[in-house]
Write a structure and sequence with these properties.
By secondary structure, this protein is α+β, with helices and mostly antiparallel strands. It has seven helices and seven strands. It is elongated, with a radius of gyration of 20 Å. The relative contact order is 0.19.
Length: 208
Amino acid sequence: MYIPAQFKAKHEAHALELIRAHPFGSLISNDDDGFPFVTHLPLHLQSRSDRLVLLGHVAKANPHGRFLQTRPQVLVTFMGPQAYMSPQVYPDLARVPTWSYLAVHAKAEVVLVDAESAKDQLLKQLIADHEPPYAQQWRGLDSDYQTKMLGGITAFELHITALECKLKLNQHRPESHAAMYQAYSQGSPDEQALAQWMLKLGLVQPKA
């Protein structure tokens, strides 16, 4: 990912916050012809003592599972809030439109999860992220049905080896920040989220 210095996140915590807030990622491998193959899927981020790990699964019928087995280096991307930025935020007219966005790229090594008990634990992590009460329903399902469902997925851990985080909020154009913040804070949910990130990064100061 192209990241000019002014847009490069200074703290790993920013990348982790974005992943947790926007866990629907794009898992990218090469197919048998060397062409990028992408699966869009929810992932669960774990911070272990020695590494960061993403947990996920794909359908057994998805050829991506085979690509993970034969080519265990992958790229995962996450897109945070994003929105158009009008040149009207500048005090002069010799400006052009652009796009504000927050994105994370993670390089990772794949570890396949085969044991039924480990798959079950992985699924419960994802359930806990999105619908904790469903865990009780899952535990109450017939064991044969559970086994069938677990057999229908390829589960994996993605051990992160490198993180890149781009926070593109016009940091190098401070003359735009006050108007950007005002426009974004009154806009769509994505725009309001960008306004909050402007506060987080200290591009504008909260009103007293």
